[in-house]
Amino acid sequence: MNVLILTGHFGQGHFSAAQTLGDEIRRSFSDVNITLRDIFEYTIPNYSSRLYQGYTLLVNRAGKLYNWYYKFTENWKRDIHPPFCRYFQAKLKTLIAETKPDMIVSTLPFCSQLVSQYNLKNGQNIPLITCITDVSTHREWINPGTTMYLVPCEAVRQNLIEKGIAPGKVFISGIPVQEQFKANVHPLAKDGKHLLIMGGGLGMLPRAKSFYQGLNGLKDVKTTIITGKNRDLYQRIHGRYENIEVVGYTDQVYRYMQEADLVISKPGGITLFETIFSELPILVFSPYLQQEIKNAAFIENQKIGLVLPTRPEECVEEIERVIHNDTQLERLRANMQTFKAGIDSDAILKIVTGMRSGLEVRAS
């Protein structure tokens, strides 16, 4: 059996989820061939890096425009077609001829749109599994050619059903995270508290000097800040504060989470579920992008974390209050455990098993 996984590098979340799904299938089925492709690196190899740079510039400098488009298309009644569809369809046809997939998995809306249109226009019926990587049912994720959906939570499942998706097609799988985040190893005893702060792959963190000064002054708290690919921030704060360790881009995030009492991050979908599986309470920076606003609302609704104030001084005060409140931290962890109980982490494996056997697969 051949499985083609399609994704993109708009941030690290989509690609990370794709890698995780590929790893899960590979561990369970030695005879399944996995091909993972960044759709833009494959189709426009000379321009993909510029595309991703442009996206980063858009969300950092023109967030209002991004949010306007997101809201404008969120509840469209008609299907959303990928731009330059004919060009990408031709490239996808070549990729499919090369890989001969029996199933395609997508962790990016663009890829789901592309495969759905390919199936419809070419009279094909290649099963398409769409993995939604935010707590969202934005119209861009919903396509007539999708066979199954992997969704983060019950609320997203219900929203898809309300929009006309058959219940048996929607699996509550959480957002896929690497196996290391599921170890849930926290030290039994240590000196003081350990705070972890992350800004995602792009290192989107506060710039105010007072924020870092406030963190450095927290009593009995050691702070680790992962700056990702934000070299400017790394250089500005590295080695400047005695109680703050600064780390650049790392693939050992799970280790830092295992050592932490509390994590602070922007509310990205992958990071959110990494903390859930690690049972690590989360505080999130006040969100601005629309999908992160939805993720932050989910955090508060599930009572697994809190949204921080916008002002740096108030932000530090809230961090200090929460990290020294063991009762609240335990309550947040307990809520994460309850939420995890409703996740079917083996959903992708059940789907692959059904596809291999030619049996109908339905979500319960």
Automatic annotation (TrEMBL):
Keywords: Glycosyltransferase, Transferase. InterPro entries: Diacylglyc_glucosyltr_N (IPR009695), Glyco_trans_28_C (IPR007235), Glycosyltransf_28_UgtP (IPR050519). It is found in: Membrane. One of its GO terms (biological process) is glycolipid biosynthetic process. Residues 14-177 form the Diacylglycerol glucosyltransferase N-terminal domain. GO terms for cellular component: membrane. The keyword Acyltransferase does not apply. It comes from the Bacteria. Gene3D superfamilies: Glycogen Phosphorylase B (3.40.50.2000). Residues 217-337 form the Glycosyl transferase family 28 C-terminal domain. Belongs to the glycosyltransferase 28 family. This is UDP-N-acetylglucosamine:LPS N-acetylglucosamine transferase. It comes from Bittarella massiliensis (ex Durand et al. 2017). The lineage of its organism: Bacteria, Bacillati, Bacillota, Clostridia, Eubacteriales.
